[in-house]
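Posting for a labmate who doesn't have an account.
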Amino acid sequence: MGIAGMGLAAAAIGSSAMSSMAAAMGNTEYLPPAPRKLVVQPVLTAALSQRREKTSWRNWGGFHTQQDISDEQQRIQKELDSLGGKAEFGLEIRPLVTLNDKNKAAEVAKQDHDVTLIYAATSWVDVLETLTNPAKWTMMFLRHKSGPVYLWYEVAHNRYLRKTVDQFGQPGVDYQDVVVDSTDELLWRMRALYGLKNTLGKKIVCIGGAAGWGEGGQKAPDIAKTTWKMDLQSVDYPALQVVIDKARQNSELVRRCNDEAAKLLKQNGVSIDTNPEFLGKSFLLTQVFTELMQQAGTDAITVNNCMGTIMGASETTACMPLSLLNDTGFSAYCESDFVAIPSGLLLHYISSKPIFFNDPTYPHDGMVTLAHCTGPRKMDGQNLEPVKILTHFESDYGAAPKVEMKLGQKITVIDPDFDNKQHLGFEGEIIDNPFLDICRTQIDVQIKGSVDTLNEQTRGFHWNACYGNYLKEYGYALRKVGVNWMNLTV
C-alpha cells in the first residue's frame, strides 16, 4: 500500500487512550515490536587427563573424575538459571553443551545463537579456537574460587588471546570478553550485547529524510547504514501531508484526540501554558507517526526539519508527539541527526529506558546544562515525571514538554563524535531543573569527571542521556563495532 492510501492506526499512548483510539478507527492497537532476545549458548570444555609414568601428565585444574565434570555441569546450570532470572532484558540461555572435540565444537560454532559462552575448564586451545566463531560474540568464563579452579585461569591470556606472543591474536575476542568467577560480570556484558543486537540493522522512519547536524554530520546517514547497518526509511513531506489530511478528515479520531489531550491535562503534575488546541493536534500527529511506523514494521521514527516544515504540515510541533512516543516504548527523535541517533538507540536498548536526546551547553564549574524540547517523562521506564506544557521555544508555537526530572538522579551521558570513531561518556547527577530561555526540558548536571578533559575531548553536537549508570555496557558494546570509547568517570 502506498503511503497516500494508508489508514490510521491507533498509537500506544496509554491504556485508556489506546482503547478509545482503536475503537474509533476499528483497528487493533499497535505496540512497539518486542526487541529481539539475546541468545546465548553455554559450552563447558572439559577433558580428563590420563596418568603417565615419569613425565608430567596432569594439567592445572580441579577436574580429575567424571563426577567432577558432572558436578560442574550442575553448578553451571544453577548459576545460569539465577542469571536468567536477574536479566531485565530479553535473554534466552540454551541448554549447556559439554565437549572436548573439535568436530563437535565446529558444529556448535555454526549454530544460530548470538553469544558463545565458553566455560573453559580444561580441553586444549584448538577446541577453544574452533568454538570461537568471529561472526558471533564470544565470552569466556573462568573459575578461581567459585568452584574447581580451571586450567584456563592460568593460560587464557597467554595462549588463547595472545597465541604465546605479545600481541592479541584471537579474532573476535579481546581481554574484556573474559570473566573470572562473577556471573554479575557476565550479566552486564550480556546486557550490552542485547543492546547492540537490537541497534544493529534497526529500521527507522525518517520524516523529511535522514540527515546529520552541521558540516561534520553530512556523512552520518552513510555511517548509520554501514557501521550500524541501519535501514533508513524516508518519508517526504508531501506524503506526510496526505496522511495528516486523512487524519483530520476523521472527525471521530479528532474528537478522541482532543478528549485524550483534556484527560492528560487533568493528571496530577501536568499543567499547560500554551493553546490547548496545539495539544489536541499533537495527539493527532502522534497517531500519524504511529501509522508510519506500523506500515514500516518498526518502532523508531525521526523528524527532519522539525524547527519549521513540520509545523506548517501539522499545525503544531513534533515535540509532544515525540515525548509521548518515547514514554510508550517507541524510539522517537527530532532533527533526524544520525550522528547521535545510533548512540541513542544503543543506550535505549542497553538501559531499557527512554533517552533524553539533547543539546549540551558549555561545561563549567563541574556542571553542564542539557536541554531540548522533546524530553520524555517516563525516564525511569515506569513513572511519569511532572511536566508543564509550553510552546516550542525557538518558534514560540505548538506544544512542548518542560519535564521536571528527578533531582539527585544519577544519569549516563553520551557524546558521539561526527566520524563515529570515538564516543565519550560520563556519569552525571541532576542538580536542577532551571527555566532559562532555551529549549524547554532542561537539566543542570553535575559531572563526575574532569571538566577540562570533557571540554578538550568533546566532539559532534547532540548528546544522549538516560537514568542510571550504563557506562560499562555502552563502552563494551562500542568495541564490538570498532568504535573507541572514552569514559570520564573512572
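Reply:
Got it, the C-alpha cells are right above this. The chain has two domains: 3-32+200-487, 38-196.
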